[in-house]
Specification:
The chain is of the alpha/beta class. The chain is built from 16 helices and 11 strands. The radius of gyration is 24 Å and the shape is elongated. The relative contact order is 0.10.
Length: 524
């Protein structure tokens, strides 16, 4: 039996004014290779964000149908409103949306189409097409495929040259155009951020009803600031538990990742406001949109207030802050592959672990780049860190946020033993980052919040420096995952040996570059 053709459709739309000059973009992709199969974009005149988003969806589905009317299509959009309405979970109350939704539903049979919400930073291709369509409309023209810059060219520089690749990507972004309105535009020009207006007040009202935590937001028209970097690979979703305090922080002290996270929080609040004012006051739907801001459902980073951005930015971001990530040396539990977190026996290094610590100390001394040594409070890390610091003539600073996850009742057990004793809890833990180990352990979601906050705090304190973080398997994997913008399940797809070295560079524009992963050459 022949397997069905499968496509991914990514679509977006935007309005400069909401309502205002609007356009949409859509792209059909091969889900296996990522190859672009078709692009669509159009300037549609004066319309709202939601109308433009629906128009983008319709264009993307029609393009997929033209390629293969029998294809299975997965639609990915950063509009929670469109995804939830087309999935049938939310009612369509606004009269302008109903005919558009009906048109989209008729293009392909419902059994062939599925919908998925994705963060805005993962929808850049369609977003850029929509920008290009609006720019063309401003010039009195329509978008032409030959003029599209939606797909970036391969970065120049030798293979593996992360700095050159990042610089090329930033240069490509800088040359692009941005549809930015409202407070983000004011911030980009140094005019500050507006936090009033009916949409912002309404969104804060929703947040107050959902949880007793205020959400920092920007009022005014919705914005897709694609060239701003979005905190890119450093992390995206805002966490409301720290947003309120961060909003009061000085812009000069906010880290690049925090600035990107604050922008994402403002995006979510603005989209919730769009639901209130565009779709007839759908309070439950708007509240649902704010859940990731309030309870970290899409937890990636701790947000801080966005500092005014400098207009125009080029490829030279100066020296990045580089975190060299060292997993501690072996303990007696390491070769047995037993769960060993922050809630267990806090074992010391074994003899093999001490030899590993001495070897990595020599390797780092030969490189001569480490300026600061920071360690998890657990004994195995402090002993590893002290071996390195002594060799480098530095002191060790202890950072509680670098501790390992608490594995609860699983501490000291092997995977097989946990599977035998707590099979349901183990399966839930493998299936969802929200699930915690048996007996009150720490979930990966909670650990991500903690480690993201620690990362941002250390970045603010060590800008432009090379810092050795001596920590554990989970913190290293989370930092790498966030830098790559990878999904939570990536935590189970990385190998980290005892006393291995990894490294992530964080640039001033909020982008991150993974430079090393699980290097054990010094142990051979």
């Amino acid at each position: 039996m022949q397997r069905p053709v499968r496509f991914v459709v990514e679509a977006d739309g935007g309005s400069r004014g909401n309502p205002g000059p609007a356009g949409y973009g859509a792209v059909v992709l091969d889900p296996v290779t990522g190859e672009t199969l078709a692009e669509r974009a159009e300037f549609i005149g004066v319309a709202t964000n939601n109308v433009a988003e629906y128009k983008g969806l319709i264009a993307g589905l029609k393009a997929a149908r033209e390629l293969s009317p029998d294809a299975q299509v997965q639609v990915r959009m950063d509009s929670k409103l469109v995804v939830e309405q087309m999935s049938g979970r939310w009612k369509i109350k606004h009269p302008d949306m109903r005919p558009l939704a009906a048109e989209a539903a008729k293009i392909l049979p419902a059994s062939q189409v599925s919908y998925e919400w994705i963060p805005r930073e993962r929808n850049k291709h369609a977003d850029r097409l929509a920008n290009e369509a609006m720019d063309a409309g401003k010039r009195g023209r329509q978008w032409e495929p030959s003029a599209s810059t939606a797909v970036f060219s391969t970065p120049s520089g030798p293979p593996g040259d992360a700095a050159a690749g990042a610089a090329a990507a930033r240069a490509a972004l800088a040359s692009g155009r941005t549809r930015t309105t409202g407070p983000e535009a004011e911030a980009a020009s140094g005019a500050g951020t507006r936090t009033s207006g009916p949409e912002a007040e309404a969104a804060r009202g929703i947040a107050a009803g959902a949880a007793a935590t205020p959400v920092a937001s920007g009022g005014g028209g919705r914005s897709h600031a694609t060239a701003s970097g979005h905190g890119a690979s450093v992390g995206a979703a805002a966490l409301a538990s720290s947003t309120a305090g961060a909003a009061r922080a000085s812009g000069a002290s906010a880290s690049p990742s925090a600035r990107g996270a604050a922008r994402t929080s403002a995006d979510r609040v603005q989209e919730a406001a769009d639901v209130l004012f565009t779709d007839g006051g759908a309070l439950p739907e708007a509240q649902a949109m704010l859940e990731p801001c309030l309870d970290s459902e899409a937890s990636e980073t701790t947000a801080a207030a966005a500092a005014p951005a400098t207009p125009g930015w080029g490829p030279d971001m100066g020296a990045p802050a580089t975190f060299v990530l060292l997993r501690h040396g072996e303990t007696a539990l390491t070769p047995q592959k037993r769960f060993s977190g922050s809630g267990g026996s806090d074992p010391e290094l074994s003899e093999a672990g001490r030899r590993q610590a001495a070897a990595v100390a020599e390797a780092l001394a030969a490189r001569g780049t480490i300026q600061t040594v920071i360690s998890s409070p657990l004994r195995r890390c402090r002993e590893t860190a002290q071996a390195v610091a002594t060799r480098l003539g530095l002191t060790v600073t202890v950072e509680d946020g670098l501790r390992e996850v608490d594995f609860g009742a699983w501490e000291g057990l092997t995977f097989a033993e946990v599977q035998e004793r707590f099979p349901d809890d183990l399966q839930a833990w493998l299936d969802s980052p929200k699930a915690a180990p048996t007996g009150g352990g720490e979930s990966f979601m909670a650990a991500t919040r903690r480690i993201s906050a620690t990362r941002d705090r250390l970045l603010a304190a060590h800008a432009g420096r090379t810092v050795l973080l001596v920590t554990h398997v989970t913190p290293v994997k989370i930092l790498v995952r966030l830098a790559l913008g990878a999904p939570p399940e990536a935590l189970f797809r990385m190998e980290l040996s005892a006393a291995s070295l990894s490294a992530v560079a964080y640039y001033a524009d909020g982008n991150a570059s993974v430079r090393l992963l699980n290097d054990t050459a010094h142990l051979r």
